[in-house]
């Protein structure tokens, strides 16, 4: 299941992040690419060891966790470090799939989901679509600044070449309590339906059986 999260970052949040990006130094994105992806990755990234960058990471992750759909869609157990990326004209990230496990040898994170938070206004650059392959074919994604796209990390995907302008984004990975995509989608559908029923004014006691079922499914599937 793939999902668009709208307005993860409000305009004032975007302004703060962009100011931080402008004040930081960019390095080759090949530093953080896995062995298989290194040959097709042509972009720039911020140095994650910089304390200013780490502060930006925390700010963006906090905003992501506050989004009303993020918790019920991802069921996050752990999040990776964020990578802030920059694509200038001619830069691209060729077709690849993300590493199944990321991080230090003694603290590996299973990458169930990946996400991209778009930081540039969509009209300020040409090209640069995130293209994700699925059974339905290729899906090109180019969202408004502040929006995020969440998708299965095992998908083959690429970033199309930027033709003009600059594409800024923050990317990361999620280890979910519910690793099975179909189970996670069932829980998402039930949680969304529960919220809509509650908004219709149904009495709380009438929602308890649904709450019980959602909780018990999560107990069965979480790991």
From TrEMBL:
Fe cation binds at residues 96, 98, 157. One of its GO terms (biological process) is intracellular iron ion homeostasis. It comes from the Bacteria. One of its GO terms (molecular function) is L-ascorbic acid binding. Keywords: Dioxygenase, Iron, Metal-binding, Oxidoreductase, Vitamin C. Its cofactor is L-ascorbate; Fe(2+). InterPro entries: Oxoglu/Fe-dep_dioxygenase_dom, PKHD_hydroxylase, Pro_4_hyd_alph, Pro_4_hyd_alph_FE2OG_OXY. Binds 1 Fe(2+) ion per subunit. Residues 78-176 form the Fe2OG dioxygenase domain. 2-oxoglutarate binds at residue 167. Pfam families: 2OG-FeII_Oxy_3. The keyword ATP-binding does not apply. HAMAP family: Hydroxyl_YbiX. NCBIfam families: PRK05467.1-3, PRK05467.1-4. This is Fe2OG dioxygenase domain-containing protein. It comes from Candidatus Viadribacter manganicus.
